[in-house]
Queue: 4 jobs
Job 1
Amino acid sequence: MVDSVESVDKIMDQWSQFGLSGLVIAALFMFCRFLITEHRAERQEWICAYREQSKLMNETQSETNTVIRELVTVVKESNARNARN
């Protein structure tokens, strides 16, 4: 990863021996490297957001399951009372 101006200068000096085309190639490499690092950072944000959303969804689903179990119990009890009558 290109972290400092000195390393950018070093890379540009190495590629400058090939003239303008070398400088263009070096610039394209650095641009691609920049895009890749930015994409990785964005992907990390997506992963964190996904994990948080999944955690919230699991909590909500757990609460919903509890309510459904209680409703099933009430319906079974109601059916049992109606069957006796």
Job 2
Amino acid sequence: MASRFIVVGDSFCVVAGAQDSFRNWCQQAAELLGMPLVVAAGPGVSQDWQWDQLIKLWPTITPEDRVLVVLTHCERQWFVRDKPGYTHVNIGNLPTELGESVAKAIQQYCLHLQRPELDLAHQAHRLGWLSAQVQRTGAHPVWVLPAFSLHWLVHGIATSTAEYYDNFLVRGLPNLWLTEQNLYDHVQELEMMPGESTNSVFQGVDTRYNHLLKHNHQILAERVTQAIQLDQPVQLQDPRWRKGVLSPLIWQDHRFIQTEMDLYAVQRREQILKQHQGSLLDKTWLGSWLKNK
């Protein structure tokens, strides 16, 4: 079997459909590495789902394969077996997608039962399992690139990845190339103009491929490729990132939209906002729940 570039991730990694010619950063990195690509990813998925994919993939993994885990947020939970993308109150309109009773149960879990310290401990256990599998099978060390910073929306608390690696004794795990930066803070949100955010610009429907401008897909592909070629953690520092360009004014710049956005998602956003008569963000179940909790 030829060596493969295997990516296990979340919405930062999902490959565009067959009808779309755009090649995202995973595909570009695989081309730079000269390896066939395997992607196991889905929007909104939890670490439970990601490790389920790793368990299924691991018997096929050889020492020649290169594996990257884009580690999603540990607060997400795989609540409903056949709907792995609905993992938190901030993902989708849960009453519509899952029914009122399930949505209420998830709401109550996030508010009353979820404990961030346990989420962090469970993440450490998963990384320990991954380290052990590499050791057991003789696989190549695995790259771990966090998708998000460690913050809990409902509880209003946060910690840094560096502190987490130290406090939960993760930094010393063998067989893992750990990155301290994350894609959300160090790429996605830096694309915004000062004072703006993904929500203020997109009103709930992000029309970028994998939450990144097309320009930045190329840079991320090169960052990942360099890390794999040099056997070192993925470093996200790079002066070439396109930063500080997104505001609500982009919707008047049709050339920018054509150049940097997923045009299928742009069309879908227009339809959804029209359906909701304005900002989808203002109409979400999460917004009304947070106001009334």
Job 3
Amino acid sequence: MRHRSIHVRQAILLAAVSALLAFAPARAAEPLAGTWLLKSQEVAGQKNQPESLTLRIFKSGSAFEFAYSVPVNNIQFVSMQFTSRLDGTEADVKDAQGNKIGTIKINHTGSSEYSVKLEGANRPSASGKMMVSSDGKTLTSESESDVPGRGVVHTVQVFLRQ
């Protein structure tokens, strides 16, 4: 009887470990990855009605691809994209035609926080952070950019997971 009890406990333990291993990749997924829809935007303290903007972030090898798209005649048109590691490595930012318009550095600074630095010729530099809410449903992007003639402009964008 005792021998059977040990086998039952081993079977339960094996099932529990198997279940944990089966769900481990889901828990280990990058919180930033997903499809996000812009819900609200505030620029220099002024809330404004944002135009429709979708941000898709997905794993691409050892990096993540970021694609910002807007609807044009009911078709999502990628207006800006880049593929970046989340370790602060510099990556090229490209426009809709694939032309380099700048560089970006993204660094994973906390469990659901990322620092961002964006630079480009003939455009203001911006630095800030992106944060995924604890429930994983909201992505908030805050940045500061030095705009010629306006000074430092603070921008907050809030995206909802789709």
Job 4
Amino acid sequence: MTAGRYTAVFTGLLSLKKPGEYTYLRMGEDPCAPDGYTVDVGRPPYGEMGSEISFGELPEACRRLVLDTYRRVWNL
């Protein structure tokens, strides 16, 4: 899967989620590529995640996708 380099976890009060489950976004370096990203709801793959980075350290295309996904998740 090429969409596994970066993972953004959207935490918060989603009415349809179970405890410990969140919407999360997995992205590759180029999220616009085929299989470049996936969005899922459930327990994020914490065992597959590396170190935490800041939002500003993400590639520009990934930052745009995170913001677009955030807006969709929260209907903004």
